[in-house]
Amino acid sequence: MCIQPLGYSQPGGFYSPGGYHFNYISINQHKAWFGNNGLLFAKPLEGNSIRSASYWPGGENAYKSLAWSTLSMIWSGYFDTSFYYPKYHFNKNLMPGVPPSAGKNKDNRIYKIRKFWESMPFNEFRNTFELDFNEWPVQKGAPWEDIDNNGIFTKGIDKPLFVGDETLWFTVSDIDTQSNFSSNSGYSGFEEQYTIYGFNRGNFLQDAIFFDVKIVNHGNAVFDSMTIYTTSGFFSLVDTSKHSRFYYDSTLRMIGYYFRNNDSYEYSPPPAAGIVILNASNSFLNTINLLSVNTSAIYDTSVYSFDGITFADQIYHLSRGRHANGSPIVNPLTGDTTRFIFTGDPISGTGWNYASGLGPGILRYGNNANFSLGPVTFNPSDTIHIVLAVIAAQGTDNMNSLELLRQRAKLLKRAYENNFLTPPAPPSPEVKIYEEEGKV
Questions:
Q1: Where are the beta strands (DSSP E) in 123-266?
Q2: Distance of CA 125 to the CA centre of its chain
Q3: What DSSP character marks residue 85?
Q4: How does pLDDT run across 58-117, given as a tens digit for each residue?
Q5: Dihedrals phi, psi of 236, to nearest 5 degrees
Q6: Cα 18 to Cα 248: distance, rounded to the nearest angstrom
Q7: What element of type H or E holds 404?
Q8: Is 286 strand, coil or helix?
Q9: Is 149 left (phi over 0), alpha (psi -120 to 50) or beta?
Q10: Please, which pLDDT band fits residue 19 given cuts at 50, 70 and 90?
Q11: Who's near 62: CB < 8 A, 6+ residues apart?
C-alpha cells in the first residue's frame, strides 16, 4: 500500500497496512497526525514503519517538521508486588475502541468535526465532517452538548461538543491478555480516551493544539504507584550539530525547546516549541504532581554500572526521575540530588543549562525531554485526566523565539483557565479635536 506524501491532504484520513486509522488536525498553523492505536504525532510509511508527523506552520499545507519523535504516554506501576509496564514502550500498539466492541473497524476510527462545516463547499472534506458529526460516538464517551438538559443524548436535538474549532476524538484500550505486557501477564483493563483540538483565531491560539486525555481503569485490580511517563522531541535530528535543546520552566510548567544558535535545519529564524502541562488530576479532582523531568543518555559504564539492570528496571528508574541504572541525578552546579534537569534560564544563561552538562560519566545526552506524572494509586473505575498543550513561536532569533514562547505559554494558561474565552479587543479610544490658533 502506498502512503501519500507527508503534505498530502486526505479527507477522513487513511488506514495503514496494519488496519489502523490515521487522521490529522489542521485548523490553525499546526498539522499533526494521530493513530487509533494510541500513536501521537505519527504516520506510517511503507509497510509497518512509523515516522513522526507533526508540522508547523502552514496548517493544511505545513511541511516543516515540528516534532522529530512521536509523543508517547507510557504508564507503569504495580499489580500486587509485580511491576508492570506496556510491552510497546515508545511505539504504542493498543487496540482501537473498548471491549466488547474493540477492534480495527470504522466504528472505532478517529472522528473529526469542525465548526461551520455546513457552510463548506460540497466536496469530500465536507462529506467527511458531516459523516463524523452525524455518527459522533457519544455511546463510547465522546463529549457532547446536552441541548435539552435532560442528561440523555437525543439525536437530532443534542449535538457533538466542539471543544475547539476543530475536534478529534478516539479511544484505545489494552485488551490483549499477553502481547502488550513486558512483565508477567494479564490484562490491565485500561482505556485511553483522546480529545484533540485547536482554534482558528488570529492570536496566540493559532500556534497551539491541545490534548485532553482520560485514562480509565476498567479492570478489577488496584494499580499502585502508577506514573504516566511522557516522551517528546522537537525539531530535526538530520544534522546533529543543529540539535535543539530543552529546559524546564517550573513557573509555567512547561518543557521548552530551543536552538542553541541561529543555524537551524529547516527554519530561519529558528523557532521555539513547548509542552505545557495544563491539568493532571484524578477522579476526585486531586492534583497529580509532576514527578520528574529528565532525558535519555549514553553512559560510561565504568562510572555507571548496569550489572543486573533489566530493561524493566530502566523504565522504572527513568519514570521516577533517576538515571537509567537507578543512580540519583545530581545538579552539577550545586551538587544536590534532583529529579529535574536543565532548570536554568537559557536566555540569561543562569542556572543549570545544557552547557553545564549532566556530570561525569555521561557520554552524551539526548535532546528529547521525558517527564513523569505521579505516583498515584489507580483504583478500579478511577479516571486520570491530563491536559497538555503543544505550542510554537518564531521570533527574530533563537532566544527571541524562546521569549515569545514564554509569553504565549502565559496567555495560553490564562485562556485555558477561562475556558478559552479570550477577551475582545479594547474599545477604540474616544478622540476629540480642539482647534487653537496654530494648533489642532
A1: 144-145, 159-160, 166-173, 190-198, 208-217, 223-232, 244-249, 254-259
A2: 26
A3: -
A4: 999 998 888 767 788 888 899 888 888 776 555 567 889 987 788 899 999 999 999 999
A5: -85, 150
A6: 37
A7: helix 398-417
A8: coil
A9: left
A10: confident
A11: 7, 26, 29, 30, 31, 55, 56
344-382: pLDDT as tens digits = 999 999 999 887 877 888 888 777 788 999 999 999 999
Three cell numbers at 166?
Answer: 476543530
What is the rounded CA–CA span in Å between residue 185 and residue 385?
26
Give the type of residue at 85.
Answer: Y
- Say if CB 345 and CB 251 are below 8 A apart: no
Strands 166-173, 362-365: pairing is: unpaired
Q: How far apart are CA 253 and CA 241, in angstroms?
A: 28
Pairing of strands 14-15, 21-25: antiparallel
Cell of 307: 550489572
Residue 279: all three cell numbers together: 491539568
CA distance 65 to 80: 43
Is the CB of residue 312 less than 8 Å from the CB of residue 320?
Answer: no
| CA–CA dist 239, 224 (Å, integer) | 42
CA 59 distance to own-chain centroid = 17
The residue written with cell numbers 530493561 in the block is 311
In this structure, are residues 67 and 230 in contact, taking their beta carbons and an 8 Å threshold?
no
Q: Is the pLDDT of residue 428 over 80?
A: no
- The structure's pTM equals 0.88
H/E stretch holding 159 reads: strand 159-160
CA-nearest of 328, 337, 322 to 291 is: 322
Q: Give pLDDT, residue 2.
A: 36
First to last CA, the chain: 73
d(CA 119, CA 132): 16
Whole-number Å distance between alpha carbons of 212 and 389: 9
Number of other residues whose CB lies within 10 A of the CB of residue 287: 10
Rg (CA), the chain: 23
Distances 172 to 99, 141, 318, 381 between C-alpha atoms, Å = 10, 12, 25, 16
CA 401 vs. chain centroid, Å, equals 20
The CA distance from 32 to 42, in Å, is 8
